[in-house]
Amino acid sequence: MGEVEADAELAPRLANSRRELAFKMEPALLFRRLRLAAGLSQEKLAAAAKTTQTYIARIEAGTVDPGTDMLARLAAALRTDEVTVFTAVRVQRAAKGSKRS
To answer: pTM for this one?
Structure first.
């Protein structure tokens, strides 16, 4: 690993991979991180997805499960695919459920 870190060409790739891994290791923040990675506030995401800021907050809190039409609108607003948004929401809800235990 030290050789990779010392390599000027590979070191940035390693750093990026570590950021991506950290992103995936924080499931409770996954949907929120998608929004932040897109550079959107809850209000701006809500406007782009034709919903309310309160609804976006509820998704981030893991208390609501968006339907397929909403997932499609969120994916378009976040400039990602629907599977990524669906997975983020499901992981978010699962993390919320594990906090209750």
So the answer is: 0.69
